[in-house]
Amino acid sequence: ESTLTYESQTVLGSSVNGAAITAYHFGNGSNEMVLIGGTHGSYSANTSALAKEFISYLGANESIVPADMRVTVIPTVNPDGLAAGGTTGRFNANNVDINRNFDCDWAATSMWRDQQVSGGSAAFSEPEAKAIRDYVSEINAVGAIVWFAAEGKVYPSACEGTPSNASVELAATFANAAGYGVEAEFDAYTINGDMVNWLAKEGVPAISVLLTDRNGIEWNKNEAGFKAALSSLSN
Asked: How far is it, in rounded angstroms, from Cα 39 to Cα 21?
């Protein structure tokens, strides 16, 4: 990662196995937009690759960040899973799905498609989820984009209710610019402890962007979506 250019970086915490969870910052404004990849480790490694591409892009184009904004990129929430490889790398080293470990409709056992997965022993039992929680609590987050795979759609966020207008607008703005479909809500199966819905609970307009497959980063689409979203969040 020494090849990456960035304005500053913060180590947010460590994984179960002690790997650093790092955030990279661009711009100095008080309103922060957060970009997150790698929640499901090697199972959707392209989301980490896309986030790292954003670090390189922002490092080379810092002037695109408006004066009132700061953009923070967290490329890999689940470094142990990314290192593990394969489908098992979806989970952290405790075999917990980090995207079931947040404090929104949390349950010890949740679903991933038709299989049961662990949500941990309690909300925020896992150090990776705690690292995101603690960072978000310290900043003025005005928007968040969290990448997953794979469907080629964008979803707004909500915790125990209807998505906020800001979340719905952010989803539409990103999707329209990127050329992804946009849905009102994810209802293929019940998700407990979702990070993006927890962000909504914290008052942050947040969207899930599901890349079309598990291979490519679809850079042109996501660059266009990001720029439109950044513009919409800036005063």
From this structure: 11
Rounded CA-CA distance 45/55 in Å is 16
pLDDT tens digits, one per residue of 49-86: 999 999 999 999 999 999 999 999 999 999 999 999 98
Q: Which of 138, 116, 118 is nearest to 126 (CA)?
A: 118
Beta strands in 27-88 (DSSP E): 31-36, 69-74
- Which of 6, 115, 105, 97 lies closest to 44 in space, CA to CA? 97
CB neighbour class for 159 (10 Å; exposed up to 12, middle 13-18, buried from 19)? middle
- Reference 140, options 75, 226, 205; nearest CA is 205
The tens digit of pLDDT for each residue in 141-151 reads 999 999 999 99
- Burial of 195-216, coded b for 16+ CB within 10 Å and e otherwise, reads bbbbbbbbebbbbbbbbeeeee
| pLDDT higher than 50, residue 152 | yes
pTM, 2 dp = 0.95
Strand, helix or coil for residue 209:
strand
Q: Which pair of structure tokens corresponds to residue 129? A: 């989820």
- Quick one: average pLDDT of 9-38? 97
What letters, b where the CB count within 10 A reaches 16 and e where it falls short, cover 112-147?
beeeebbbbeebbbbbbbbbbbebbeeeebbbbbbb
